[in-house]
Amino acid sequence: MGRLVWLVLWAALLVVAIVAVGMCSKYGIGVTPNAGGRAVPPLNQQQCPLAAPIKGTFSRVYHIPGGLLYDRTDPHVCFVTVGDAEAVGYRRSQN
Hints:
Radius of gyration: 17 Å
Low-confidence stretches: 32-36
Order of helices and strands: HEEEEHE
Number of helices: 2
Oligomer: single chain
Mean pLDDT: 79
């Protein structure tokens, strides 16, 4: 009986890991945009580094400096250029 419990627990853990990886891919978490590595994590909850000012969100939308919602956007990834963001499937904010 003990082995069966461990087997079920390991199977459940494997399912959770697979789902987590799928969610990360869907929402761009841990994204590496291209061979140039031109995506970086934000400095804090609201700021991107000066060298990578384009804010990418979980909904795969990017915001550029000066945009209507830029200052209110909390990034989960920052891009150097618009091309870097678009290369990994982000689209420009409509605002």
